[in-house]
Q: What sequence folds into this?
């Protein structure tokens, strides 16, 4: 019995030592706050382009077509465009979510003309 107790005591000492090392490593990590700072929440077109896989011109095209909506995804302040990061994240999630309906691809040259002869 005494041999089993010493093995358990040794295992406990090893576990406590490893736990102490892990705790020291966690304490060295910077404190992370899930709430974004003002510099992270509001982005310019170039900053947004650096965060998402779209080029600046693509973002501007999405604004022009109405995919990204003014007042929801971005604001114009003194001729500058400011994106709201949380709104853009929601938009990206909606775009990546699989849709229930599948739209067939019909090339433009195969589409029927609406003109009557």
A:
């Amino acid at each position: 019995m005494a041999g089993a107790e010493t093995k358990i005591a040794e295992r406990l000492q090893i576990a406590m030592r490893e736990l102490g090392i892990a705790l020291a490593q966690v304490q060295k990590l910077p404190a992370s706050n899930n709430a974004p700072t003002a510099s992270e929440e509001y982005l310019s077109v170039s900053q947004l382009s650096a965060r998402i896989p779209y080029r600046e011109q693509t973002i501007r095209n999405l604004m022009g077509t109405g995919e990204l909506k003014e007042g929801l995804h971005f604001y114009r302040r003194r001729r500058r465009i400011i994106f709201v990061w949380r709104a853009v994240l929601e938009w990206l999630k909606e775009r990546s979510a699989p849709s229930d309906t599948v739209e067939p691809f019909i090339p433009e040259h195969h589409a029927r003309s609406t003109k009557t002869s």
Observations:
- The mean pLDDT is 81.
